[in-house]
Amino acid sequence: MDQIKKLTLYYSKEKLALRITELAKEISRSYNSREPILIGVLNGSFIFLADLLRKLRISCELDFIKVSSYSGAQSTGKVELVEDMSVDIKNRHVILVEDIIDSGNTIQFLRKRLLSYGPKSFSIVALFKKKNNAKLDFPIDFIGFEVKEEFVVGFGLDLDQKYRHLDAIYTLNQNFKK
Ligand code: IMP
Ligand code: MG
Q1: By CB neighbour count within 10 A (0-12 exposed, 13-18 middle, 19+ buried), where does 168 fall?
Q2: In which region does residue 112 sit, left (phi positive, over 0), alpha (psi from -120 to 50) or beta (all else)?
Q3: pLDDT tens-digit profile of 140-172?
Q4: 128: Cβ below 6 Å to ligand 1?
């Protein structure tokens, strides 16, 4: 496939699977008997969430929220709600599931919005966090990998809606032009 040649493998599917299993163990331990509701951030988190969910060993529920902020490999800086959750999270233990945190704009927007509904507790799990980018005044409770500040694709993550189907994480080669 032509498009694969433009990409360099960054995290193999085996590495991803191992880390996701560890994250699921940590979350299962922390949320034992609390019946959390996981809120996946669409579209990017859907594959991570599907794998994470199937490794959890606790009773839990699931819903989604959809936002957008990216155009190509650049954040527009403006986060927009595309589709809201369909459950009431008041007094619930909420775990927000994000694919990757870069500037932190998306996660700040979502955190503020979800906290306004009055959950009993709130935490964030992100498969990736780019080093040094986000200046956040709250913790990211569970992080899969801290990554370099390059644009990555695959495993649900896209560039202009492409590459989500790849089962590992790739960086785009430097001479890559859309
Ligand atoms: P932030 O708002 O700058 O933190 O960016 C977060 C959102 O942008 C994530 O939910 C991703 O959907 C997207 N994003 C940020 N960096 C990347 C990347 O390297 N690859 C794919 N999507 C990314
Ligand atoms: Mg996303």
Answers
A1: middle
A2: alpha
A3: 999 999 998 889 999 999 999 999 999 999 998
A4: no
